[in-house]
Design brief:
Mth169, Chain: A; alpha+beta; 30% helix; 80 residues
Length: 80
């Protein structure tokens, strides 16, 4: 059994209002030195078998089909 992580983030050219709101609030909470925040999503996918290339290709297809909107989001698949 293997666990794969899919991190989904807005593409850099897409405005991230939630990330901007967090970045604006940080100085008020006493956190200095943060110039920007980007908000994203993390998915953990447990596989029945090993995380071989075929399984990772299937997870990439899942990410493209269901987990991410490829128009505005990018994703990264990695094995834990």
């Amino acid at each position: 059994m293997a666990r794969v992580v899919v991190d989904v983030m807005l593409k850099p050219e897409i405005l991230d209002p939630q990330g901007q709101a967090i970045a604006r609030k940080l100085p008020q909470l006493g956190f200095a030195g943060v110039s920007a925040v980007r908000q994203g999503k993390r998915f953990e996918v447990e596989l029945d078998g090993p995380a071989d290339e075929a399984a990772l290709d299937q997870v990439r297809t899942i990410a493209e089909t269901l987990l991410a909107n490829p128009v505005v989001e990018s994703y990264e698949v990695r094995v834990l």
